[in-house]
Amino acid sequence: MEYEGLDWPDGYGDMDNEYFDPGMLEQLPPEILDQLSPELLEELEQNNPELFQRLFQHSQEVDDRVFVLFDSYPDVIDQCMKPVFDSAINIMLPILLISLFCRLAAQFLSNKLVINVTNVLAGAFVLYYFTSAAMFYMLVAILGYTVVCMVCDNDLFGKNRCYIVTAVYFSFLSYCNFFVDPTVWHQVMGPQIVLCMKILSIEFDLSAGRLKAEPSLDGVMGYFFHPATILFGPWVTYSMYENAFSKLDLSTWVQVFTESSKFATFAVVSLLYSSCFTNFLLGPAANIWLKAYFVAQSFRTSHYFVQYLASMSSSVAGFSTYKCIEQRATEGKEATKVHSRTMGFKKVNYVKPISVEFPRSMGSIANNWNLYMNDWFKVYVFQEMKQYGVFKAVFAVYLVSSMLHGAKFQVSAVLLSIGFISYAEYLLRNKLSRAFSACIQSSPCGKSCSHQYKGSNLLVIVTNLCFTLLNVFHLIYLGAPFDNSDVSNVGYNMQHTASVWANLGYSSHYALLFTLTLAKSI
C-alpha cells in the first residue's frame, strides 16, 4: 500500500514512498493526527482512506490505554502502587535524611562557617544525585550573580542593584528558555526557579531594609544550596534560613518529626492517586469531560506530591522555627517586663488541596496552589510594581511567572486564562454582591460584613456553590492539556494545547467571554 507526495511533519518525512507497515504505528505518538494540517488530513483521507483509518484507530487506542492500564485492584497494587511507592521513597528518603543531617549539624555545631559549608556540600550532592545536568546551570547562574555583586557594589548602586540583578538573571533565563536543549532545560527548571526566587529575595530585602546587612559569602552559598530546598523548593527567606541554625528543645523536635511524618504520608498518597487510581477509574467508554477531569486531577495531585515533599523537607530542616519574644511580668512590678528570645515552632504547609479542588473563586486556586510562591510574588513582584498601577502589577506577576516556568505556550496560556477568569469573576461577583447586598464576592466576607444576606443564607450558599462548580469546570478545562504525553518531556507546545482545548470546544474561554460580557453589562 503506497502513499506518497504527502507533506508529513518533521520526523515522519522518511515514510514517503515506502510501503505501509502496520508495525510502524507503534512508533507513532498518539498526537500524530493533531500534528497534521487539515489540508493534509483531507488529502490523506481521500487518497489513502485505509491508512487514515489505521492512524485514527491507533490514536484512539493509545488514548484509551492512558486510562485503562489495569483490569483489577490486585493489578493496580502489583503493577502500579508498589513501583510508585518505591519511587516515592527513593525520592523522599535521600532528601529527608540529608536535610536531617544538616539540621543536626546546626543543632550541635556552633561554627556558622562549618554549618554553611556542610549545607553547600550536602545540597550539591542532592542536586547531582537527582539531576546532574542542573549543576552546570546552577553554577553559571551563581557565578553570574557573584560577578554582578562584585561589579555593582551595594555602596555605589544602593537600592538600584536589585533591578540590575533582576535584568541580568532574566536575560540568562530567556537565553536558556529559547536556546538550551528543551529536554535538558525542562529537567533543571525546578532548581532554577527556586534559585531565582532566592537571589531576588536577597537583593530586594537588602534594598527595602528587611535585611540589615549583606550576608557573608558562605552564608549566601549555604542558603542557595541547602538540600531541603535546592531541588523542589520551598523558597524561604534568608532570615528563615538563619533561624534553622537555632538550637531546639526536645518538645520542638517532637513537633518537627510529627509534622514531617504527616507531610511524608500526604506526599505518598498524592503520588499514588495521581499515578495509579486516576488511570484505573475510567475506561474507553468514559465521557470526554470525565477523562479531562481525571487527567487534570492527576496533574494536580502530582503537584500536591511536590508541595507536600517541600513541606516535609522544610519542617525537618528547621525552616518552621522562628524567633519570638517571651514577655513576663517581674514579681511585684507588673509594669516592668522581662524580654527573652526563644525559638517557637510554626507549622508550615505550602499547598491547600481542598481549596484548590473545591475553590470558592479562581483567585483562591491561584492563592492556594503554591503558598510560598504566592507569598514571593506578592512581596517581590506585585508590591514592587503596585506603584505603577494594579493592572501593571498583575501583568508583571503573569510575565515573571511565565518566564520562571520556561515561557512555554501552554503554561503562559493557562496563566493568562486564569488571570482573565479571575478578573471577570471578580467584577461580576462584586457587582452582584452590591446589587443584592449579599456575601457572594470572590473572597469571603469578614466579621465586619455589612451585607443584608450573610453567608449562612440559603440563596447565598447556592450562589457561591454555583460559582464553585463553574471554577471546577474551568479547572478541568485548563488542566486537561497537562496529560503527561510525549511532549511533556520538553514542555507542551501550542499545537498540543490547542488540540486538547479544541476537543473540549474551547468551552471555558466561551464561558469567560460570557462572564466578562455579563459583568460589564450590569
Can you tell me about this structure?
This protein is mainly α and 522 residues long. The chain has 21 helices and four strands. Helices cover 67% and strands 5% of the residues. A hairpin with a 2-residue loop joins β3 (321-330) and β4. α6 (133-151) packs antiparallel against α8, α13 packs across α19 and α17 runs antiparallel to α18. The longest helix has 36 residues, at 73-108. The N and C termini lie far apart (62 Å). Mean pLDDT is 80; it is low at 1-31, 60-69 and 324-342.
Helix-strand layout with pairing:
Blueprint: E1 2-3, E2 18-19, H1 32-35, H2 38-47, H3 49-67, H4 73-108, H5 112-130, H6 133-151, H7 154-157, H8 161-179, H9 182-208, H10 217-225, H11 238-243, H12 250-280, H13 288-317, E3 321-330, E4 333-345, H14 353-357, H15 362-369, H16 371-385, H17 390-404, H18 409-436, H19 458-479, H20 494-503, H21 507-521
Antiparallel strand pairs: 1-2, 3-4
Number of strands: 4
Report the average pLDDT across residues. Answer: 80
* Radius of gyration, whole Å: 26 Å
- Write out the strand line-up for the largest beta sheet, numbering strands in chain order: 1-2
Biggest beta sheet summary: 2 strands, antiparallel
Structural class: mainly alpha
Tell me the β content.
Answer: 5-15%
Distance between the termini: 62 Å
Low-pLDDT residue intervals, each spanning 5 or more residues: 1-31, 60-69, 324-342
Shape: globular
Order of helices and strands: EEHHHHHHHHHHHHHEEHHHHHHHH
Share of residues in helices: 55-70%
